Amino acid sequence: MNTKQILIFKHFVEMQNENAVADKLGITQPTVTFHLKNLNKEFGLSLYFKKGKHFNLTEAGELLYQNTNKVLNLMEETTDMMEEFKQSKRGTLRIGASHAPVYSILPSAFKNYMHKHPNIDIDLTVETAPIIIEKVKNRKIDIAIISEKGFNESEIQTTRLQENPLVLAMDKRHPLAQQDKISLEDLQEYRFIIHNSGSTRESIDEWRKNNFVNLDVHMESNSISSILTTIKDSNYLSLVSASVLYHHPNIIAKALPNAPSAGHISLLYRNDRHLTPIIEDFIALIDTNTYY
User: Fold this and answer.
1) Which of 132, 176, 246, 263 could form a disulfide with 96 if both were Cys (CB 3.0 to 4.6 A apart)?
2) Vertex 200 angle, CA 246 and 239, to 5°
3) Does domain 166-261 fall into CATH 3.40.1010.10?
4) How many other C-beta atoms can be found within 10 angstroms of the C-beta atom of residue 267?
5) DSSP for residue 242
6) How far apart are the first and last CA of the chain?
7) How far apart are CA 178 and CA 48, in angstroms?
8) What is the pLDDT of residues 54-71, one digit of tens each?
9) CATH topology of domain 3-66
10) Residue 272: exposed, middle, or buried by beta-carbon count in 10 A (0-12, 13-18, 19+)?
11) What is the pLDDT of residues 78-137, one digit of tens each?
């Protein structure tokens, strides 16, 4: 059974005349007869019978007629949906992110994008930057926003959106909060809560090694939320990417003495990735001066 047969059967039931069906569909009457006979033959059932001048449907024919309307309506709806896909009105955008962008540029980006594209679903994966890079390479996600300090992947297109330096984070009432400049010696007097993995931890380890610093680390976590919640209203310190503090007014950032080279928040996707309209729209939204 194909679309043409379904359409012929529907009109035949409604018009009760093969010639009328042929005229409506722009085909010949023998073509109508051929397809109607093939439907009966294909199902191995009698779909209708003639009674006087009219054709009556059998029980099987009635069921087929009911479903032809459903199928044709669904096909019309599907055609409309495909057109909406072409116009970026429907679909799912698979985005990967490391932790820093989730707390900085992505909330506003998602809000603006979903307002503009209410029928686009966003499937967000949050992992460390190395895992996200692998998912991009393996086509598990469409595009990614990560915090990085440089990586060599010839398969991946990278656009740097903003600098993301490592900073000293503390509660705004911390004893060091009023100091303009903080020394390495100042840091020895306080306990730290730091990341246990990811690009931020790599920057921390680089800084500690270069400055021969032995921090008093009281807790390690892969959750930036738990780190910031714990240092709030306390004398704990942390070393975090500057971008994660954007939406935390009670936590302030201080310049880290002898800070390592700054990382970046970057947009990436495979070089050979076909950029659908819904992907292009998100890239256009996020790759603007709004987020610098």
Assistant:
1) 132
2) 65
3) no
4) 20
5) G
6) 57
7) 90
8) 899 999 999 999 888 888
9) Arc Repressor Mutant, subunit A (1.10.10)
10) exposed
11) 776 677 667 666 778 899 999 888 878 888 889 999 998 888 899 999 998 889 999 999
